UniProtKB/TrEMBL annotation:
Membrane topology of this protein: Multi-pass membrane protein
Domain of life: Eukaryota
Domain Cation-transporting P-type ATPase N-terminal: from-to ranges: 30-103
Keywords in alphabetical order: ATP-binding, Calcium, Calcium transport, Calmodulin-binding, Cell membrane, Copper, Copper transport, Ion transport, Magnesium, Membrane, Metal-binding, Nucleotide-binding, Phosphoprotein, Translocase, Transmembrane, Transmembrane helix, Transport
Reactions mediated catalytically: Ca(2+)(in) + ATP + H2O = Ca(2+)(out) + ADP + phosphate + H(+)
Identification of the protein by name: Calcium-transporting ATPase
Organism name: Trichuris trichiura
InterPro entries attached to this UniProt entry: ATP_Ca_trans_C, ATPase_P-typ_cation-transptr_C, ATPase_P-typ_cation-transptr_N, ATPase_P-typ_cyto_dom_N, ATPase_P-typ_P_site, ATPase_P-typ_TM_dom_sf, ATPase_P-typ_transduc_dom_A_sf, ATPase_P-type_domA
Transmembrane segments: 86-106, 118-137, 320-339, 359-388, 882-903, 923-940, 960-984, 990-1013
Region (Disordered), start-end ranges: 266-303, 1101-1125
Known function: Catalyzes the hydrolysis of ATP coupled with the transport of calcium.
Length: 1125
C-alpha cells in the first residue's frame, strides 16, 4: 500500500457514523461513489486485495480485527480471593493468637512441650497455605481452560472474502481494511463496511441501535453495514472500512471502559456488593470480535451461565453449612463450659493468661469443625467436572458455548431435530426429474431435451442460485465432486454437470452486478427468485424461480411440454403432478424442487409472457411471483447417515423421544423418519404439517393454548413443512407442559437465522457447525462441528456423566462431613477434646474438598449411561440409594472411631490420649490414621451410586483417580510417621498399621452389605434436593454478564427495582465520563468530534433512534445529571 492520498483511520471512523441517505451522499460528495472509495482504499472491487505485504501493511495502519479482552486474573489474584473465605480468615486469626501465646511462658508445661508449642500454630498456617494454593491452582487452571475454549471458537470462525480474484475463507480476525467481504443470509457482519453491490439485503441492527425492525440496505438507501449486526435476508459485497477497536462496536467497548486499551478501568470501577450486573463485562464473541454480553441473543433472554444441578447443590450446601455452624458453635461452647466449670468452679483456680491459650485452642477446633462441615468443594466439583467434560466433548464434535448446557443435556427427555445434514448426510444428488411431460427415474440424456427446455434449465439453475455455490469436479476418478455452498443448489448444479453442461460460462456472461432483483429464500417464501434482463436482444426482464414444489406449482399457469413449448397448466394437471410426481418422489425420501420462469416483454408477448405497460414494482412480490411457467420438477436424494438409526435407538433406550422438525414435504419427512427409526408403524405416532399443527393448537380467536398443545406433543414425531415459528411454538409447548411428572427437558437443533428463537427457548440449543448460520450459532448453547446427530447422543452421555460425577463426590463428601463433625462434637462433650486435631482436620478437608473433587469429577462416561431413563427436572440430588450409602458408611466409621476412642488404649495396650491435649499420642494418632484410611477406601465405594457391586470397575481408566488416591495414601504414611508435633502424630508400629488397614478394607466389605439393603423399602423422606430450584450463576466462574442498560428488571420487588435503578445510573455516569474526558493517546481515545457525534454509541445505551431532524437526542444525559442533586 503506497503512501499518498489513502484514507486515514479517523476519516473512515467519521464516515461510518453517517446513516441512510446521509451516508450515501457523503460517499458521493467525498469520494465520487463507492468505486471512488475503493480507489482511495487501494482495493479492487472485483479482485479484492492481492498482495500479502500490502495486507500486513494495512494491519499495521488500520489495526487488526480484534478487540482484546480483559487480561485474565493472575494466580496470585486467585490466591488472594481464595483467602477471603470467612472461615479461613477466622482460622488465621486464631492461629496468629495461638502462635503468639506459644511464646508466652507457661509454668504448667515442661520445657520440651513449651519449645514445641509453636509448631501447631505454624502447621495450621502451612495447612491454610496449602488449601489456598490448591484452590487458587484449580481456579487458575479452570480459567485457563475457558480462555483456551474461547480461542478455539475464534479459530473455528471464518468469513468469505475476495482476494486475488478468488473467494476464500479467512479467519475473522485476519480481515483488514480494504477487504471485499461476500455477505449472505445468516452471516454475522465481521467488520464495518460499505456496500458495493447487494441483492435484497436486510440487516438486524438491534445489537447496536436497539431497533428491532430489519433495516433494508441498498446503494440508494443505506450502504453502511456495522460489525456485530446480522444478515437476515439477501446477499452482497462489502468493502471493509473499519476493524477491531476502530469499528463502531469497538468504539462502544472503549467508551464502556471494557477494552484493554482503557487503562483507567481499574480506577473507575464501580463496586456494587452482591450485584452481578453493576459492571458490563466483555467476552470474545463467536466471530472473533468482542461481543458485549447482552448484545444479540443475550439481550433477548440469554441469562448468565447457570446450572439447575448447582442450584440444588447450593441449596444443599447452605443447609449443611447452617447445621455445621450450629455444631461448631456447640462444640466451642461445650469445650469452654466444661473447661471453665472444672477449673474455675470445681478446682477453684484463678484465671491466667495460659487459660486464653486453651480457649484459643477450643476456638480453633470449633472453626476447623466448621471448615469440615461447610462443603465448599461442591461448587468446585461442579466446575471441574464441567470443564473436564467440555474439553473432552470437543473431541466428540461438541463445541460447548454455555457451560450449563453440558449438564442440562444429561437430563434431556426430548430432542427436536432437523432433518437435512443432521439425520442425513447433506450430500445431495438429483436422482429423478419430471421434464417435457415425462417422469425420468434416472438421468435423462441432454440430446433428448428440446432446445427451449435446455436453455431454461441452464438459466434456472445457473443464475437463480448463489454465485458462491459451486461444484468442483474431483481430480481423482471415482471420487465425489466437492460441493461448496448451499447443498440443494449444489445438487442442481451437479444435475447440469452430469448431463454434460456447465454453469460458469453463463455466470460470467451475467455477473452478480447485472442482476436486477433477487428474492432470497426464506421460510415464508419457501422459494428463491432472480430477475435478469431478457437475453437475445429482446427488451424486457426474465424472472427465474425455484422452490418447494407444492408452493411453486400453485403459482404456475403454464408448463413446458414435450416439444419444449409452453402449455396451459390446468388445476387438474397440478393435482396430477402433486399426487403422481411430487408425492411419488417424496414417498421415496426425495426432496422435490420445482423450477419455473416468467418473462416480462415490451412487445410481441406470447400467451405465457407478461406485457410491460407501466414501470414494474419489483417490491410487489405477490404480483411478480405469479403466472409462472413450470420448467421441471426434480427429486433430490439426501441419504440417511448410516450411524443415525442406531443412535436414535440409543436415545429411545435412554428414555429420550426424538422428533423430526423439518421444512420438507410431509411424505419426504415421513419416509426419512421411518428409515431413521423415529416412527414405528406398530406404535402410536402423529405426523403433521405446519399449517395443520397451527390449526390444531389454536382456539377460535387464533391464540395458542397449552391444553391443545398437550393433546398433540406426546405422540407427535414428525412436523413437516414447518416454519421457525412452528418450531418455537412446539418447543415452548413441550417445555411448559405439566403432563410429565418430572417435566420435559428439550434439546433443539437449528441451522437457519430464524431458528434463533427456538434455540434460545430450548433447554439446550444445538447449532450446525458446517451448515449453520452465524446467527444460529450465536443463539445456541452447543455447536455440532460435524452436523451429525450421533454427536448429540454423545452430548447426552457426557451430560449424564457430569450429573453422576457430582453425585459420586457428594456421596463421598457427606459421609466425611457426618463422621468428622460428630466425632469432634462427641469428643468435645465427652472428653473435653476433639480426637481429630485442627491440623489433622485441615488435611482431611484438603482430601475431601479439592483432591476428591479432582478424582471423582473426572470419570469418563460409559455406554451404560444410556441404558437408564433421564433424571428430569425434579429428581432429588440425593437419592435413597445415596442416602443409604452415606448413612451406612457413616455408621461404620463412627462405630470404629468411637470404639478406638473409648477402648483403643486397652485393645492395643497403649497409653490413653484422653486428657493429654498438648502432646501427640499413639492413641489419637491411631484414630486419625484409621479415619483417614477409611475415608480413602470409601472413595472406591463412592464411585458407584446406583447400587453396583464392583466398585473397582474400570478404575484403571481414570489414571487421575489412581494417582490422587496413591498420593493421599503416601502422604498419610509420611504425616503419621514423621509428622510429629506439626500434625500431632507419633509413629505407629507395623501391627498397628495392619489393624488400620484391616478397619479400612472393612469399609469395602461393609459397603457390599449396605448395597444388599433394598433402596425401595426406605422412606422417601430420605431423599434430599427434590423439586424445581431457581437457576443461579455458576460459582467460581466469571460469566458473561448482561448489559443492565438493555435488560429489563427481573426482580420487581422494591429492593430489586432500587438496586436495578442504581446500577443503571452508575453505568450511565461512566459512559458520560467517557464522553466528557475522552481517552488519552497513550492507549486511549483523544478528544475528537467523532465521539461526540457518534449516533450508535448512544443508541446502544438508550435503544432509541436518532431524532427525526438528524440531531442527537440527549435525553440519556438527564438521568445521570439528576443523580448528582
Amino acid at each position: 500500500m503506497t503512501v499518498g492520498d489513502e484514507c486515514t483511520v479517523l476519516e473512515l471512523m467519521e464516515l461510518m457514523e453517517k446513516r441512510g441517505i446521509e451516508g450515501v451522499q457523503e460517499i458521493s460528495d467525498r469520494y465520487g461513489g463507492v468505486d471512488g472509495l475503493c480507489h482511495r482504499l487501494r482495493t479492487s472491487v472485483n479482485d479484492g486485495l492481492c498482495d500479502k505485504d500490502d495486507i500486513e501493511m494495512r494491519r499495521r495502519i488500520y489495526g487488526s480485527n480484534y478487540i482484546p479482552p480483559k487480561p485474565p486474573k493472575s494466580f496470585f489474584r486467585h490466591a488472594w480471593e481464595a483467602m477471603q473465605d470467612l472461615t479461613l480468615l477466622i482460622l488465621i486469626a486464631a492461629a496468629v493468637i495461638s502462635l503468639g501465646l506459644s511464646f508466652y511462658p507457661n509454668a504448667n508445661k515442661s520445657e520440651v512441650d513449651q519449645s514445641a508449642e509453636w509448631i501447631e500454630g505454624a502447621a495450621i498456617f502451612v495447612a491454610i497455605l496449602v488449601v489456598v494454593l490448591v484452590t487458587a491452582g484449580n481456579n487458575y487452571s479452570k480459567d485457563k481452560q475457558f480462555r483456551g475454549l474461547q480461542a478455539n471458537i475464534e479459530k473455528e470462525q471464518k468469513f468469505c472474502v475476495v482476494r486475488n480474484g478468488q473467494a476464500e475463507q479467512v479467519l475473522v480476525r485476519d480481515i483488514v481494511v480494504g477487504d471485499i467481504c461476500l455477505v449472505k443470509y445468516g452471516d454475522l457482519i465481521p467488520a464495518d463496511g460499505v456496500i458495493i453491490q447487494c441483492n435484497d439485503l436486510k440487516l438486524d441492527e438491534s445489537s447496536l441501535t436497539g431497533e428491532s425492525d430489519m433495516v433494508r440496505k441498498g446503494t440508494g438507501l443505506d450502504v453502511m453495514v456495522l460489525s456485530g449486526t446480522h444478515v437476515m435476508e439477501g446477499s452482497g459485497r462489502v468493502v471493509v472500512t473499519a476493524v477491531g477497536l476502530n469499528s463502531q462496536s469497538g468504539i462502544i467497548m472503549k467508551l464502556l471502559g471494557s477494552a484493554q486499551e482503557a487503562k483507567q478501568d481499574g480506577k473507575r470501577e464501580i463496586k456494587t456488593s452482591g450485584n452481578a450486573n453493576a459492571e458490563p463485562k466483555v467476552s470474545n464473541g463467536l466471530d472473533g470480535h468482542v461481543k458485549q454480553a447482552g448484545d444479540g441473543d443475550e439481550t433477548k433472554g440469554r441469562k448468565a451461565e447457570k446450572s439447575v444441578l448447582q442450584g440444588k447443590l447450593t441449596r444443599l450446601s447452605q443447609q449443611i453449612g447452617i447445621a455445621g455452624t450450629v455444631v461448631a458453635v456447640l462444640t466451642i461452647a461445650v469445650l469452654i463450659l466444661r473447661y471453665s466449670i472444672e477449673k474455675f468452679v470445681i478446682q477453684q483456680k484463678a484465671f491466667s493468661v495460659n487459660d486464653i491459650h486453651d480457649f484459643v485452642g477450643f476456638v480453633i477446633i470449633g472453626i476447623t469443625v466448621l471448615v469440615i462441615a461447610v462443603p465448599e468443594g461442591l461448587p468446585l466439583a461442579v466446575t471441574l467436572s464441567l470443564a473436564y467434560s467440555v474439553k473432552k466433548m470437543m473431541k466428540d464434535n461438541n463445541l460447548v458455548r454455555h457451560l450449563y448446557a453440558c449438564e442440562t443435556m444429561g437430563n434431556a427427555t426430548a430432542i427436536c431435530s432437523d432433518k437435512t445434514g443432521t439425520l442425513t448426510t447433506n450430500s445431495m444428488t438429483v436422482v429423478q426429474s419430471y421434464l417435457k411431460g415425462q417422469h425420468f427415474r434416472k438421468l435423462p440424456l441432454w440430446e433428448e431435451l428440446p432446445r427451449t427446455l435446455q436453455e431454461m434449465l441452464v438459466y434456472c439453475i445457473s443464475i437463480n442460485s448463489s454465485y458462491s455455490t459451486q461444484v468442483i469436479p474431483s481430480k481423482t476418478v471415482g471420487e465425489k465432486w466437492q460441493q461448496l455452498g448451499n447443498k440443494t443448489e449444489c445438487a442442481l448444479l451437479g444435475f447440469l454437470l452430469n448431463m454434460g453442461q456447465g454453469y460458469e460460462e453463463l455466470r460470467e456472461a451475467i455477473p452478480e452486478e447485472q442482476l436486477i432483483k433477487v428474492y432470497t429464500f426464506n421460510s415464508v417464501r419457501k422459494s428463491m427468485s432472480t430477475v435478469i434482463a431478457l437475453p437475445k436482444g429482446r427488451n424486457g426482464y426474465r424472472l427465474l424461480s425455484k422452490g418447494a414444489s407444492e408452493v411453486l406449482l400453485r403459482k404456475c399457469q403454464f408448463i413446458l411440454g414435450e416439444d419444449g413449448h409452453p402449455q396451459i397448466l390446468s388445476e387438474k394437471m397440478v393435482k396430477h403432478l402433486l399426487k403422481n410426481v411430487v408425492e411419488n418422489m417424496a414417498s421415496n425420501g426425495l426432496r422435490t424442487i420445482c423450477l419455473a420462469y416468467r418473462d416480462f416483454v415490451e412487445s410481441d408477448a406470447n400467451f405465457n409472457e407478461e406485457s410491460i405497460v407501466q414501470p414494474i414494482d419489483w417490491d410487489d412480490e405477490d404480483a411478480i411471483l405469479t403466472n409462472l411457467t413450470c420448467v421441471s420438477i426434480v427429486g433430490i436424494q439426501d441419504p440417511v447417515r448410516p450411524e443415525v438409526p442406531a443412535a436414535i435407538r440409543n436415545c429411545q433406550m435412554a428414555g429420550i423421544t426424538v422428533r423430526m422438525v423439518t421444512g420438507d414435504n410431509l411424505n419426504t419427512a415421513r419416509s426419512i423418519a421411518q428409515q431413521c427409526g423415529i416412527i414405528n408403524p406398530a406404535s402410536d405416532f402423529l405426523v403433521l404439517e405446519g399449517p395443520v399443527f397451527n390449526q390444531k393448537i389454536r382456539d377460535e380467536n387464533g391464540n395458542v393454548k397449552q391444553e391443545l398443545i398437550d393433546k398433540i406433543w406426546p405422540t407427535l414425531r414428525v412436523l413437516a413443512r414447518s416454519s421457525p415459528a412452528d418450531k418455537y411454538t412446539l418447543v415452548k409447548g413441550i417445555i411448559e407442559s405439566k403432563l410429565s411428572k418430572t417435566r420435559e427437558v428439550v434439546a433443539v437443533t437449528g441451522d437457519g437465522t430464524n431458528d434463533g428463537p427456538a434455540l434460545r427457548k430450548a433447554d439446550v440449543g444445538f447449532a450446525m457447525g458446517i451448515a449453520g448460520t452465524d446467527v444460529a450459532k450465536e443463539a445456541s448453547d452447543i455447536i455440532l462441528t460435524d452436523d451429525n446427530f450421533i454427536s448429540i447422543v454423545k452430548a447426552v452421555m457426557w451430560g449424564r456423566n457430569v450429573y453422576d460425577s457430582i453425585a459420586k463426590f457428594l456421596q463421598f463428601q457427606l459421609t466425611v462431613n457426618l463422621v468428622a463433625v460428630l466425632v469432634a462434637f462427641v469428643g468435645a462433650c465427652s472428653i473435653e477434646d476433639s480426637p481429630l486435631k485442627a491440623i489433622q482436620m485441615l488435611w482431611v478437608n484438603l482430601i475431601m474438598d479439592s483432591l476428591a473433587a479432582l478424582a471423582l469429577a473426572t470419570e469418563s462416561p460409559q455406554e451404560d449411561l444410556l441404558k437408564r431413563k433421564p433424571y428430569g427436572r425434579k429428581k432429588p440430588i440425593i437419592s435413597r440409594q445415596m442416602m443409604k450409602s452415606i448413612l451406612g458408611h457413616g455408621i461404620y466409621q463412627l462405630v470404629v472411631v468411637f470404639v478406638l476412642l473409648f477402648a483403643g488404649d486397652r485393645l492395643f495396650d497403649i497409653d490413653s490420649g484422653i486428657g493429654r491435649r498438648t502432646v501427640p499420642t499413639q492413641h489419637f494418632t491411631l484414630i486419625f490414621n484409621v479415619f483417614v484410611l477409611m475415608t480413602l477406601f470409601n472413595m472406591f465405594n463412592a464411585r458407584k451410586i446406583h447400587g453396583e457391586h464392583n466398585v473397582f470397575e474400570r478404575v484403571y481408566r481414570n489414571p487421575l483417580f489412581c494417582i490422587i488416591w496413591l498420593a493421599c495414601v503416601t502422604l498419610q504414611i509420611v504425616i503419621v510417621e514423621v509428622g510429629g508435633y506439626a500434625f500431632f502424630t507419633v509413629s505407629l508400629s507395623l501391627t498397628q498399621w495392619m489393624w488400620c488397614l484391616f478397619f479400612s478394607v472393612g469399609e469395602l466389605l461393609w459397603g457390599q452389605l449396605v448395597i444388599l439393603i433394598p433402596s425401595h423399602t426406605l422412606p422417601r423422606k430420605m431423599e434430599v434436593g427434590a423439586g424445581d430450584v431457581v437457576e443461579i450463576p455458576l460459582k467460581g466462574f466469571q460469566p458473561i454478564e448482561p448489559d443492565i442498560l438493555s435488560l429489563p428488571c427481573e426482580d420487581r420487588s422494591a429492593t430489586g427495582l432500587w438496586q436495578w435503578g442504581v446500577n443503571r445510573v452508575q453505568t450511565k455516569i461512566r459512559v458520560i465520563e467517557a464522553f466528557r474526558d475522552g481517552i488519552s493517546p497513550e492507549g486511549s481515545f483523544k478528544k475528537s468530534s467523532i465521539f461526540r457525534r457518534s449516533i450508535h454509541k448512544l443508541q446502544s445505551f438508550r435503544g432509541k433512534s436518532p431524532s427525526p431532524n438528524g440531531g442527537q437526542d440527549h435525553s440519556s444525559y438527564e438521568l445521570p445529571q439528576t443523580a448528582f442533586h
